[in-house]
From TrEMBL:
Residues 1-58 form the HTH lysR-type domain. The keyword Transcription regulation applies. InterPro entries: HTH-type_LysR_regulators, LysR_HTH_N, LysR_subst-bd, WH-like_DNA-bd_sf, WH_DNA-bd_sf. This is LysR family transcriptional regulator. PANTHER family: HTH-TYPE TRANSCRIPTIONAL REGULATOR YBHD. Transmembrane segments: none annotated. GO terms for molecular function: DNA binding; DNA-binding transcription factor activity. One of its GO terms (cellular component) is cytosol. SUPFAM superfamilies: Periplasmic binding protein-like II, Winged helix' DNA-binding domain. It comes from the Bacteria.
Length: 302
């Protein structure tokens, strides 16, 4: 039994599928199956049962999955602590951010890191939360910013800040004294929304279901700049945090109304793979993001 086999098994246990785990780990399915067979031989016990929909853990498999997560987390902490003993912060760190968070924190992050750690190289990838999460799980990204929701158990996740969601509209669509709008009334408007793979869409879909109303956007777009441009053109309304539209709101190009009954908000989470230790550079990025979280405009702190 080795660490590579344990890591692979934890991903199989989480996904309930050899093919999906192989895809996440960038392995062929036969190679992953060999790792599993070697692990079962080393432990002399059956860990998985195959079903019509994938695989299911046996009692021994459930026990191993729980213990393996603890072992891998402890090992990652040990490796990170040893790596942090180096006084010079160098290397290359890949960071993934969703567009709404990227607007408010990427510039400050790069500026601060360049000032604090001039020998550290940073690559920032802007993508949807689901794609950032997959980048972390596959090892393509070292650190990611996610929105709360279905975050994998294989990831460490801690809150950076919380952001309330507002209905964003063209000024001609908002009365001078209007500052709030009930969610039921939001659902009656022509909405411009991200597609179903976006966490914001899932949140709104759930709230609509609870209200017993359909969510039927007139336009779907996954690019933040497209959402904002279409609202600016008075094509419809969208839902976003105010922090991602500071300039547009301060100049009056767009108007924001707080959504009520229910109020909608989401947590912005800092995340990385639990069983992959952070390098000294990764720890520097994490510490900097924690420092900057309190400076995000129009956001709520923990």
């Amino acid at each position: 039994m080795d660490i590579k086999q344990l890591r692979s098994f934890v991903h199989i246990a989480e996904l309930g599928s050899l093919s999906r785990a192989a895809e996440r780990l960038n392995l062929s399915q036969p190679a992953l199956s060999r790792q599993l067979n070697l692990l079962e031989e080393a432990l002399d016990t059956k860990l998985l049962e195959r079903t019509g929909r994938g695989v299911k853990l046996t009692e021994a498999g459930q026990m191993l999955a729980e213990r393996a997560r603890v072992i891998l987390t402890d090992l990652a902490r040990l490796e990170a602590d040893l790596s942090a003993r180096s006084s010079q912060v160098t290397g290359h760190v890949h960071v993934g951010v969703p567009p709404s968070a990227g607007i408010v924190i990427t510039g400050a992050l790069i500026e601060t890191l360049r000032d604090r750690y001039p020998d550290l190289n940073i690559t920032v990838a802007e993508d949807l939360t689901g794609d950032v999460q997959e980048g972390l799980l596959s090892g393509r990204l070292d650190i990611g910013i996610l929105h709360d929701g279905m975050i994998s158990r294989s990831l460490h996740a801690e809150q950076l800040w919380r952001e309330d969601l507002f209905l964003i509209s063209h000024p001609s669509q908002v009365g001078e004294q209007e500052t709030e709008i009930a969610y039921e009334d939001v659902l009656s408007l022509p909405l411009i929304m991200p597609t179903n793979k976006h966490g914001l869409r899932a949140m709104m879909q759930e709230a609509a279901f609870r209200a017993g109303r359909p969510l039927t956007p007139v336009v779907e777009a996954d690019a933040l700049r497209v959402l904002v441009d279409l609202v600016t053109r008075n094509v419809g309304h969208t839902v976003l945090p105010r922090s991602s539209l500071v300039q547009e709101l301060s100049t009056g190009r767009l108007k924001a109304r707080r959504i009520t009954n229910p109020e909608l908000s989401r947590k912005v989470m800092l995340s990385w793979l639990q069983d992959r230790p952070l390098s000294a550079g990764g720890k520097a990025v994490v510490d900097t993001l924690r420092d900057l979280a309190g400076t995000v405009p129009m956001a709520n702190q923990k």
